[in-house]
Amino acid sequence: MKIAVLGAGGVGGYFGARLAAAGFDVTFVARGKHLEAMRTNGLRVISPLGDVTVEDPKAVDDISKVGTVDLVLVAVKLWDTDTAAQSLKPLADQGAAVLSFQNGVHKDEILTRYLPEKSILGGVCYIAAVISEPGVIAHSGTMQKLTFGEYDGTQSKRVQTFYEACQKAGITSEISENIRRLIWEKFVFLVGLSGTTASIRRPIGPIRDNPRTRALLLDVMREVVAIGRAKGVDLPADFAEDRLQFCDTIPATMTSSMHHDLERGNRMELPWLSGGVSEFGAQLGIPTPKNTTITQILELYAAGSKQ
After folding, report:
1. Which of 2, 54, 92, 96 could lock onto 43 through a cystine, CB 3.0 to 4.6 A?
2. Range of the domain at 109
3. What digits encode the pLDDT tens for the residues 81-139?
4. Does some domain include residue 262?
5. What angle is formed at CA 62 by the lines to CA 135 and CA 44, rounded to 5 degrees?
6. CATH number of the domain enclosing 279
7. Which of the listed residues 177, 206, 241 is the one where a domain comes to its end?
8. Domain contains 259
9. How far apart are the C-alpha atoms of 192 and 206, rounded to whole Å?
10. In a shared domain, residues 249 and 151
11. Backbone phi, then psi, for 139, in 5-degree steps?
12. Distance between terminal CA atoms of the chain?
C-alpha cells in the first residue's frame, strides 16, 4: 500500500512515521523548517510507546510531487482543507482513497465539494502529539488510535488493507460500520474540551472539579448533541452526560490543541469547533448560547497574534 501523508505535524507525522518504520511506502508532504529537518536528519518520534526514527523519509513540499498512491491521509489544519482538497483531485481521479483525520465534522463535507464521493473514507484519530522541534514529533501519553470506515458501512478491501497496515505498524486501529456517528461522538467531546479549556485558559482538571465550570462543560456538549441529532446523527439524547463521565477519567492536566494555539498566539480552529456549532444552530433554529458565547469570547484571538 502506497500512502501519502498530507500534513506531517503531530497527527500525520506520528502515524506516518509508524507506518514508514514498519516498511510501508510513505511519502510526507511538509513545508518550511520541518521539511528541511526531515530531509537532513530524518523524522523522529519520541513516545512512551517507544521512539521511532525514519532515517531517510520520502518528503516533498507539494502533493503534486507524490506520484501515484493508494491512500492519502489528510492531517492539515482545518483552514487548509479547501486548498488541500483541490490539490488532491488528480490523485483521487487516479483511484486514490482520501482519509481525513482532521478535527471536527466539516472536513469531509468540504472534501466532497472537490473530490468524488466514492474516494472519501471517514476517520477519527485519538492522540496527543505535536511538533516539538523541526523534524521531531512528541507523543504525550499512550493513547494512539485510528478508527475509520466506509460511509456506507461496507467492509471494503481498501479499508481492510489499511487496517492490516496499522496492525503491522503497531497502531491501535478499528474499522467502524458507522463512522459518521463516531466522528460526531468525538466532536461532542472535542468541542467541550476545546471550548472550555481555551475560554477559561485552564486544563480539564480544574474545569471538571468546579461545579459552575463543570455545568458549563456539560451545557457546551449538550448543544453539540442537539445539533447532531437534528442533523440525523443517531446520538443518544444523554450522550453529553456520557462524555462528562469520560472527562472524569482523563488526566487532570489534559487540555486542547486550541488552548495550546491560543497560548502560543497561533491561529485557532475556532470557526469549525464552537463556531461551527453556533453556525449550525443558526441554520437549524436551535439555540446554542454557550458555544456562541465561547465563539464571541475567543473571536479576537482566532486569527492568532502572529498574523
Report:
1. 54
2. 2-177
3. 999 999 999 999 999 999 999 999 999 999 999 999 999 999 999 998 989 999 999 99
4. yes
5. 15
6. 1.10.1040.10
7. 177
8. yes
9. 14
10. no
11. -100, 125
12. 39
